[in-house]
Amino acid sequence: QVDVAAMVQLFGYVDVTDTGFIVAVLSIAFNPFFWNVVARWEHKTRALSQIFGSPHAACYCLGAVILVLNCVRSHCFTEAMKSQPKLEGWDCHWTYYSGLAISAVGTLFVISSFLALGFTGTFLGDYFGILMEDKVTSFPFSILDNPMYWGSTAIYLGWSLMHASPAGLLLTAVVAISYTIAVLYEG
């Protein structure tokens, strides 16, 4: 049996009906849905490649849109955390520095994934017909499948701990669920 009393108490701090919280959930769920739908559409039709004149230009454009959407998602996440109460027992140096360390590890995974894959490898170039010569197996792919997704999730987890935010923890769970679904869909 799992004792869920602590989780119930923790999430008693979260107003899931708050407009900012709902917008954050929607932006978190929208991003992987958007890029998977657009990438599959491109793969079937090559419409973006035709519109932009080349697969590379189309991939770079989609990558730019994804980056903007990620900024919007992070902004919504942060605003939702700020509008909800902190967990006072976690508003201390130990939790802050633990969150900072988790965010640093997440950032390491995201940046090293990007460096290993390059821009087109990161932003769905394979759907545009831009293929890498070999499967990337170097760090961080040597330790973790989908390190960019889990690194991003770790950044949000760390950010939530740094802000002692139960709402942030719940939103981080939404990020993890969204990425899990994306991985199943992409696989």
Throw out a few tags for this protein.
187 residues, 0% strand, globular, single chain, 7 helices, mainly alpha
Write a structural description.
- The protein has one domain (4-186).
- The model has no long low-confidence stretch (mean pLDDT 93).
- 72% of the residues lie in helices and 0% in strands.
- The protein contains seven helices and no strands.
- It starts with a helix and ends with a helix.
- It is globular.
- By secondary structure, it is mainly α.
- Keywords: Endoplasmic reticulum, Lipid biosynthesis, Lipid metabolism, Membrane, Methyltransferase, Mitochondrion, Phospholipid biosynthesis, Phospholipid metabolism, S-adenosyl-L-methionine, Transferase, Transmembrane, Transmembrane helix.
- One of its GO terms (molecular function) is phosphatidyl-N-methylethanolamine N-methyltransferase activity.
- The chain crosses the membrane at residues 20-39, 95-124, 165-185.
- It is found in: Endoplasmic reticulum membrane.
- It holds the Pfam family PEMT.
List the uncertain runs: none
Terminal CA distance reads 33 Å
Number of domains: 1
Mean pLDDT: 93
The radius of gyration over CA amounts to: 18 Å
Strand % is under 5%
Q: Outline the biggest β-sheet.
A: none
